Amino acid sequence: MKLGRALGCAILLAATAACGQADPESLGQASQEIYQGYPSGPEDDGVVKVANVDTNGVTNFCTGTLVAPNVVLTARHCVSNISAGQFTCTETGELTPDSEGGRFGALLEPGSLQIFAGAAFKEPLAALGRKVFATQTPSICRNDLAVVVLDREISGAPLVPIRLDRGNQRGEVLRVVGFGETEDAMRGVRRAKDALSINQVGSSKFLVDGDPIPPRTFLTVGPALCIGDSGGPALTSEGAVTGVYSQLVETCSSPHARQYFTQVAPFVSEVLAPAFEFAGYEPIPENAPSNEAGTGGDSSAAGGAESGGGPSTSVGGGGNGNAGSAELPPPPEKGGCVCSMTSSRGAGSRLTALLVLGAVGLSVSRRRGRGGERRQ
User: Looking at the predicted structure, is the pLDDT value of residue 243 above 70?
Assistant: First the structure.
């Protein structure tokens, strides 16, 4: 099956900026929350907003997961320029030749990425990006994952462990958290939802005979996440992030909505290991004691790298989106979304689609190889 999709407009971060879900024949903006969920409490303060300013000067926002005091896990489309227009993804995660949009451009400058911690619609700025590590994938169809190392540490927020050593299974039950759309048109406030069940799992080094969806992805079916939740985590029963929210096919409220996530474990060596090495921390593995930092940073937990479109891009700029380097100066001693996508539902497999934004938190980490800690 092929999925027809089209990129829409950006989401403004400003408190006054928001508009409703687009009509079937038009594009629209939104800044809302999880469907049929519940308010997210302090235990989810590891879920953060990730705002950016793209090359058109438009401010967009996603969700990210705080996986170390200065490390945020999110979707690649949350830290990249991306071409607008209708596009179609194949089952293997490729854009069809007639696709107008869906192609990644240059990564955004790290300093344009803003992190806001807290559950409310309006929270103070907590940190800026310092360096971005991302998959070197050409399009939104697969490998939609990135890590942002921050210019300072965020204190007082729980850290989220990561599933490093295995993939996902059909029927596995997940919890999601995010800042996206609700059925009541609330917006920008963190909410959560339980009991999402994985319906299909794509092939990966953990599953040779996967379902007919892009590799290194999994999907759930039914209303849950929406515009404003992209980049957020799918959490296991142990509270570990195992997937990053990427796309929605169908309307947010549809019982047939297909929620696509990028698996995290296949990218330990390619993206996570270099990011954590640069940040000076190790990831917290799933099931780790609360006082342990874990050992996933050297990729041994996941058995090495898996090809996900080439080596990671550790930049915040570059002319072609796949290379270049831009790093901010060291931080001071004390610390100082993306879009809706729609297409008319025509004959065949044309479905309404959305790029979406969300995340959650828990546990603790230990600084590796450095004395003392930096504070905000």
Answer: yes
Which letter, b or e, does each residue of 352-369 get, where b requires 16 or more Cβ atoms within 10 Å of its Cβ?
bbbbbbbbbbbbbbebee
pLDDT digits (tens, 9 = 90+) for 146-184: 999 999 999 999 999 999 999 999 999 999 998 876 666
Instruction: Tell me the C-alpha distance between 195 and 5, whole Å.
Output: 27
Q: Give the strand pairing for 85-89 and 233-235.
A: unpaired
Q: Provide the whole-model pTM.
A: 0.76
Report, as an integer, the average pLDDT of 14-39. Answer: 37
Task: Give the tokens for residue 127.
Answer: 């940190």
pLDDT of residue 120: 85
* Cα–Cα dist 3/250, whole Å: 10
**What string of DSSP letters covers 87-148?**
EEE-TTS-B-TT--S-BEEEEPPGGG-EEEESSSSS--EEEEEEEEEE---SBTTS---EEE
Radius of gyration of the chain (CA): 18
In degrees and rounded to multiples of 5, residue 165 shows phi and psi of -115, 0
For residue 296, how many C-alpha atoms fall within 13 Å in the half-sphere facing its CB?
Answer: 31
Q: Which two tokens stand for residue 115?
A: 């992190």
Burial 251-286 (b: 16+ CB within 10 A, else e): bbebeebbbbbbbbbbbbbbbbbbbbbbbbbbbbbb
Highest mean predicted confidence (pLDDT) among 65-69, 96-100, 155-159, 311-315: 65-69
Domains in the chain with CATH codes: 3-355 (2.40.10.120)
pLDDT higher than threshold 70 for residue 372: no
Ranges of H-type helices in 171-296: 273-279
What is the spatial distance between Cα 275 and Cα 193, in angstroms, rounded to a whole number? 29
The one-letter amino acid at 251? T
Neighbour-count burial for 152-178, b at 16+ CB within 10 Å, e otherwise: bbbeebbbbbbbbbebbeeebebbbbb
